[in-house]
Structures are given as C-alpha cells and as structure tokens.
What we know:
Layout (H helix, E strand, L loop, with lengths): L1 H10 L1 H21 L4 E11 L5 H22 L2 H11 L5 H7 E4 L6 E8 L2 H23 L9 E7 L12 H26 L6 H7 L4 E7 L17 H14 L9 E6 L6 H14 L4 E5 L7 H5 L7 H5 L5 H4 L1 E3 L4 E4 L8 H5 L2 H13 L2 E5 L8 H8 L2 E7 L5 H13 L4 E9 L11 E3 L15
Parallel strand pairs: 5-12, 5-13, 6-10, 6-11, 7-9, 7-10, 11-12
Antiparallel strand pairs: 1-3, 1-4, 2-3, 8-9
Amino acid sequence: MITNLLSVLRRNFLVVTATFLASICVGFGYLLVVRPTYTATAQSFVSISSAANVSDLAQGNVYLQQIVRSYANVADSPLVLNEVRSELGLKEPVGKLQSAVQASVPLNTVILTISANQASPTEAAALANKVSDVLAAKVVSLTGDDQNSQAPVKISVIERATPPTEASSPKGALVLGLSAFIGLALGAILSIARATIDTKIRSIGQLTSISTAPLLGSILFDRTLRAQRAIVPSPSSSPVAESIKNLRTNLRYVDIEHSNKSIVVTSSVPSEGKSFTAVNLAIAFAAAGQRTLLVDADLRRPSVAAYLGLDGSVGLTDLLAQESELSNLLQEWGQLGLHVLPAGETPPNPSELLESERMRELMSQFARVYDVVIYDVPPLLAVTDAAIIAANASGAILIAGFGQVRTQQVRASLAHLEVVRARLLGVVATMVPPTNNEYGYAYYGYEAEHRAAISPAPEPA
Length: 461
C-alpha cells in the first residue's frame, strides 16, 4: 500500500509541488497582511499588611490565595480600565481593552500576572504596567475600612513589563510550517483523488496488479526516436535497441515447454504502440539470424508497409482471396533477411477473412517455413480480428500504453483472450515516462507522438 501511495505521489509530483508552493505563498501573504501583536507581562505580589504571629500569617496566606483570584477579575474590569484608558490617553473603548488585557494567578501562589496585547511593543508594556499600578491602588481603596485605616491587603509590583522584541502573533515559523504541512497534505489528497478518478495505466505496479501474466518489458517515452525508421539494427548499444533485444530474449524463455513460433502483438485500444513493438521485435529476431516473417494482419488500418517503406498495395488480402502466390507477395526488408507480408487492400469483410479456414492454413504454413512469425493485429476492444488470430497463434503479447489505456480496458482485453482460449505470453508497457522506471533494468525508448515512434506515418493501432 505504501509503495502504491509513493507511486501515486511520484506520478503527481507537479500537483504536490504546486499545492505546496501555493500554500507557502498563502502563508507569506497572511504574514504580510495580518498586523503583528505584541504581548508584555507584568507581575505583582499580593500580601497582607501585617500579621501578629505565625498563626495569623498562615491564616492570611490561605486568605490571600482565595482572594487573589478575585483581584484577577478586577484587573480587566471597567473600574480599572477606565482609569487606565484616561491616564494613557487611549482611544480604544473599554470593551476592546478588556480583550487586550488578561490577568492570571498560578496555582497555589499569590503572584498576579498581567498580560497586555497591543500592536506596538512599547504600548503593550505601558498598558501592562499601568493596569498593575491602577489595580494596586484600587485594591487599597476597596479593602480599607476608611481613608485613615490601613488596607489589610496590598499589591506590590515585583516585575515591570518591558517592550517585547518579537511579536506574539502571528508566529512566522508556525504559520509557514503549518502552510507547508497543509500544502503537502492537500497535494497528497488531490493526487489520491486524481488516481482514483483517472483509471489510466500510469505505473508498472498498476499493470502487474491487473494481470498475472509476466511483464516482458517496458518501453520508455523517448522523443529522440522520431526520425528513426527502425531501431534494432542501430550499431550503437542504445537503451532502445538493447531493450528490444531483451524483449526478444524474454520471449524465448516464456513457457519454454511450448513453442512460441507465431506471436500475435495486440493492444486494448489504438495508439498504444503495438505496431512499433511488432515491427521492431520482428527486426530483432531477424537480426539474431532467425528466419522471421512479419505479417500485417490489421486489414482495417494497416501500417507495417508505411513503417518500413514498402509497397502496401498487395499482401495478405490477396493471399486470402487466392489471387496471388505467397512468393509474389512477400517483400524483403533490409539486409537481415526479414520477410514482410503487408496487409494489402482493405477488404469489405476483414473478420470473415481472418476467421476463414484459409487463414488457419496460411498460419500453419508460415509456422512451418519460418522460425518466428510476428502478427501485427488490430486492438482487441475495437474489433474481433485480434482475438480470432490470437486463438490460432502460439501466443499473444498485450501492449499497454501508459496514459493511453484504462485499467478496465486492460481487464476486458485479458478477458477477451481468455474467452477464445488464446495463450497470453505476457504484457509489455509502452510510453513509460523516464521517472516511472520502477524496476531499473534495461528499458527501451518509445516515441508515442502522432501514434508512431519510428515512422512519420501515423500509427493506427
């Protein structure tokens, strides 16, 4: 679960970063807009005027602890604050001063603490000191029996307030820290919500959680391949060419008890890169010295001939209609001995032709003549053609394009293959962003723009 969460956050890095920065900006804005408040504190000691003996002193101390809390209530009363307001020349009403002055008494003490909040440090200190002074005078007048008698209780200021050097609120570090936390939390929530709503495949973990079939490889999104028509024969040991070779090697060792001579390459929906994979996989097998045939069995939107710069006017449809011999329709590409059978003209009944006995005979014939036969077929969810051919082939490879196909579509494709009892060799991830390299082994590049990585012609499937 934690791995999946980290994968979601990594895929939504820009969202998390944007919310984090936005929240920090809001925090800075708050600090700039809100006026700072300064708090100054003065302390007074409450005592009895005289005590005849120790017993009187003990009783007086208990009495003081009880009465000092009443003095705390007197500190912010109009009786005190009206005089404070007059002596300091303040314009604020008494009601506002009451919210600016707080009096408190620590438990089991006779210490009275006066705190004052103001927009200015000096004003806060002056207000706290003045409240302490006026309160001390009012206590004398309230507790004395007459003007000539001594008050039994007196208040002595033991610590006068000084102007604070820092604002008590808002606290910059706290505001920015809280802003950062809210930004990250909001980014995480948005990322999870987006991942829940957006069901497109965007991670290797998503793909492997859908299917129990082996992951045969992953194709990175690589814009540098746009001008290339074929990648495997490249003399350089680029990640692109090496990864196609790795895919070829993986196919040799998938379920070695069964023959993998005829391989169907399909996808769930168009624009996932199945033709790219089929063409370059066929080139890889031919480069390894195996007699390889690449068949464009996408009779609705063929693309193999355009990829390889071959004549696509004749091909499989002519062979199915028995209008020409195989030897007249095969075309050789490059110096590797790769044979290519284009789709030919688009027929009015592709499904019927591909499901015919003639097609099954041809597939058997191809398997006898060649070491490996690669079929580029339409997407599984578009038409039934792919399932028909996959049922008669040695196995099928399901392409999953990151950001192109949804999880439910992949599940539906797997179900289609299962219904026709086609043998699924594995899945191949395509259009994988470089930041999504979760497994760290050799990846191969893929250019998805305009549907084709290695050809200027559009990739229809």
